[in-house]
Design a protein that fits this description.
Length: 342
Amino acid sequence: MSDIIAAISTALAPSGIGVIRLSGPGCAALADEILTPVYGLPLAMGEPRKLRLFDLHDRQGRVIDRILAVQTPGPDSYTGEDTAEFQCHGAPAVLAETLTHLFSRGARQAGPGEFTRRAFLNGRMDLTAAEAVIDLIEAETAEAAANAAGQVGGAMLRRLEPVYEDLVALMSHFHAVLDYPDEDIDDFALRDYAAMLEERRRDLDRLLETADRGRVVKQGVRAVILGKPNAGKSSLLNALAGYERVIVTPIPGTTRDAVEEKLHLGSLVLRLTDTAGIRDTEDPVEKLGVERSLSAAGEADLALVVLDGSRPLTGEDERAMEAAKAAKHAVCILNKSDLGTA
């Protein structure tokens, strides 16, 4: 039998509301040990899934908050077992004391992701949905949240389930013929399954084609700024960021290391990396920076190659454009065109 776990589910910082959740058999009865109903019945005896008003007590029996609490019996809860939730005022001291009080009466601290793990083990969600919960929590855009919510709702399972069921049926037929040769079972011939296997292969290929888009929605576009020294790479990053993120000087080689900045562009996140200027150098520190620039290009979804429009194309410019080929996509940006051509 599962024990009772408890955790603070909101940020431990002053706020209007702070939430504590419990899960496990008898958690509502345990909650009643530290709650007094303002009206009506104790939590465990009251109507399920209905918020009611309670006084919350500390370990000395003093009332430290007036809260809303709700209990949901299993299996119709998030975790599939009995759950309870306290909606307190968001004072960190109150939340911490309440959690300590619950621990003193038999609950224990929930481990990372343990509520979702229990939901998975109790059949309340499949593995793809369980994995998507953290994506939903960490979503940085509305599109990323919608994508993760679809996964939590079973969107991935609905696409994978027919594939899984057909493959299980194929293997069941194969093993039945192998294990029971004297039974009246149709002979197994792989050619009889050829059409099904081809259809399921196409289903998986179509699913795989969405992987890159899903990664971009979840993690953002990995973009790198390339170019020779003093082409205006750092100025571009500062302009996109909207503040002086990196130092800009007329001295070539100011940027020695990769500098990252996260930007929101419409429905996507752009993870932009400014790099050291690409050129031949004997300076060991700058040389290491150039190597990192080339490495960053190979890992990028998008390379932005900044060219100095006031000067003729140089070998360093050509080297930067060649490096940009390692990225999935590349765009050339003509900078300093207002200065005229030398």
